[in-house]
# Entry
Amino acid sequence: MSSLSYREIAYNGLWRNNPALVQILGLCPLLAVSSNVANALGLGLATMMVLTGSNLAVSLIRRQVSEAVRIPVFVMIIATLTTCTELLMKAYTYELYQILGIFISLIVTNCVILGRAEAFASKNTALSSAFDGLMMGMGFALVLVVIGGIREALGNGTLFADMDLLFGPLASNWTLHLYGEGEGLLLAILPPGAFIVVGFLIALKNAIDSSLEQRKARTEVGEKERVSRRVRTTGVIN
Amino acid sequence: MSSTNSGLGRSIGFNSLLLGVFALVTSLLLASTYLNTRDRIAEAERLSAQSGLLELYPATSHDNDLLDDVLPIPDSYLKTLGLRQPADIHIVRKAGEVIGFILPAVAPDGYSGDIDLTIGINADGTLAGVRVTRHRETPGLGDKIELRKHPWILSFDGLGLGNPPRDQWTVTKHGGIFDQFTGATITPRAVVHKVRDALLFYSEYGDQLLTAASGDGAADDNLARDEGEQP
# Structure
C-alpha cells in the first residue's frame, strides 16, 4: 500500500477509483450545487482544499493517535478544516458563499474525506497522503465541473456564467452564450437533471474502460497467436 | 485482575488526554481563523447589504449612508409587509431632504415558500424599484423574478397606488397589468400583491414616516452645524 507511486495515486484519484464516478461518494452536494460551472467549481475547490488538508494532517499524526480514538480525532480535524474553509470563503468570496450556503458546511459529511483519511492517510507518508487528497479532490471537482457544464449548457444555454463570484470582476465577461437564453432544457437544471447527467457520465466511464480492456485483451491474444505460430513453424522445420 | 484494571485505566486516561489535546489544538486553529477573518467577513456582509440598497437608489441619487440611516417599522405593520421579525426602513436623503425609503417585505405565498423583497418607494408614493433578494422558486420558470434572469421586475418602476388602479394590481390572468410567465402565475402574483401591500402601507404610514425622517435629519443637521461652529 505504502509503495504506491505518485502516478498510481493520480490515476486512482482521477480515473480508476474516482470518488464521484466509481465510489459514488458525496453525491448530495454533487447533485445539489452542480447547476452551473461556477457553483460546481466553487464547491469542488473547497472540497479539494479540505481533503488535501485533512489527509496531510491525519497522516502526520497517524503514529500518535491510538486505534480507539482515531475516528473522533479524524472527525475533529475534518470539521475544523471545513469551518476554516467556510470562514475563508465568507471573507473572500462572500456572494459565492451565499449561493453555496449550507453545502460548504456539509463538506464535513462528505464520506470521501473520512474515507480517504481512514483508508489511505492513516497508513501512508504525509507527502503521498497529501497528494492522494489532492488527486481525489481533483477527481471529485472535475466530475462536479463537467456535470455543472453539461447542466448549464443544456439548461441555460450558457457556459461559465457568474465566474466573477469566484475570480472577481476580472471574470465578469467569461460567460459564453451558446444559444438563445431562457430556451434551455429546463429538466437539466432541475434536480432530476443532475441524476440523469451523472448516470450518463458513469455509463460513459464504464464504456471507455471496457473498450480499453477489450483492446488490451485483443493485443494479448494477438501476441499469443504469433508466439504459437512461431512455435509451430519451428516444429515443422525440425 | 488488578493489572488489567490499571492497564484499562491507563489506556482510558491516555486516550482522553489525547482527545483533549486534539480538541485544544483544533479549537486554537478555529479561533485564530475566526479572529483573522472576522473583520473581513463583517465588511463583506456590509458591502453585500449595501449593494442591495444601492441597486434601488444608485450612489449618485443620494448622499447619506443608506445602511445606517434607518427607522424601525412599527409592529402593527409588520404583518402587512409579511415580516415575522422586527425590521428597519432605510431612509434615502439628498441635500438634507428625504427623497425616498427602502423597506423589506416578504411575499409568503410563492410557489415554494417565501420570496424576500426589497422595495424602494419615493417620497411621493411612486415605486423607485423592487428587487428579489431571496427565493426558492422553480429554476427556469418562477426565477424570472430575479433581475439577473429577466427584466420583469423592472416593470414596477415608476408605478404607484393609483397608477394602475387598485383592482389592476395583479397579473394579467386576473385582469391586472402585470405579465405572468409561461408556466408560472403564482410566483409573479405573489410578488405583485406584496408590492401592492407595501404601497398600501406607505399610503397609510408615509406621512408619519416623512415627519419622523425629516425630524431626524433636521436634528442631524443641527448637530452638524453646532459642531461646525465650535472653534
User: Anything to note?
Assistant: Chain A has one domain: 6-179. The mean pLDDT of chain A is 84. The beta strands of chain A are 158-159, 176-177. The first helix of chain A runs from residue 6 to 16.
